[in-house]
Amino acid sequence: MRTDMPMFKLLTLNNIAVAGLRHFPRNRYEIASEIPHPDAIILRSHNMHDMEIPDSVVAIGRAGAGVNNIPVEAMSQRGVPVFNAPGANANAVKELVVAGMLIAARNICNARDYVRSLTEEGAALNKAVEAGKKQFVGFELPGKTLGVIGLGAIGVEVANVALAMGMKVVGFDPAITVKRAWQLSSGVQKVETLDRLFKESDFVTTHVPLLDATKGIVNSERLALMRDGGVIINFARGGIVDDAAVLQALDSGKLHSYVSDFPTRDLIGHPSVVALPHLGASTGEAEENCAIMVAENLKDYLENGNIRFSVNFPETFIPRQGAHRITVANANVPNMVGQISTCLAKSNLNIEDLLNKSYGSLAYTIVDLDGPVSDETISELRNIKGVLALRNLGKAIS
User: Which of 63, 200, 236, 348 could join 206 in a cystine, given CB atoms 3.0 to 4.6 angstroms apart?
Assistant: First the structure.
């Protein structure tokens, strides 16, 4: 274990599960909700777009999957990786999707409201309860088709459990990873277009981030393709579904129900809408899993410069040995590694290991060296055109 490590300052913007914070040893980390010059920020839902992020910050960790509340582009230009916890809340969201399908299919919320409105007692109450069931006749899930938009960690789990429940499942994700493809049951049919997914589905559930490309992908044209009496479930992000189009489809009878935890005023008052608070990851287990995952990766980056599960920089990992380590976040331009190597060679430093990875317009390099890097050399490296951030992590001590 290293004994010469600096004390890191960690700013928390929300209550973070203790199970996650325990991963930061208190002899090396100062953690507080108010702290000057933090090295890193860890948060859940806090909106960072309106805050001034200190120049001292070298990393941000979101204890959840979505990062819409973080100015990722601005951080990218500063060379600051933004970490998240994809998949850590997948089981919680999967269970809510299953609950949403059952609630919609069996008209459970309206049936509950009916019973709560009854004022009769005794035999009259029993009669009213019995009579009421005719208003809420539902349908069963086996044999129905579920369309899953987005086959990431959550989408794969939803698809697999729906298949196990006897549903037919079609999935759409042109960017599915090899890892998720291996996890996806062979019984899930992959489709090439969203139009085909809607055309074949009784239920459609969304599991994609809110981007320009995904905004309003559930719209009036696609809803018209669905089988009559369909159900839309959105536990992903507000804006993915065109609410006005859904309300029109509900009023016309094209849709049976809409279940979402992104309510608007118009949605809340509709009898065929099940509008919930944002419950997707709101379980104790999910909050702990997310906190632990982001804490582990944030800690590894602060101490070792390794990047795992960042939304803006590539996964880059080299186990620490005894070498001196520097890391460079830079624009993905030609000859960057060559310039770094030349600068280090001028200082008579031998490279023991080097890993360079790119991600779109950004790149990240880890360099392990046989000796310490002088302040002069660090300054020269920082002055290379295209370098966004450089960290000198010193020597690893086993």
Answer: 236
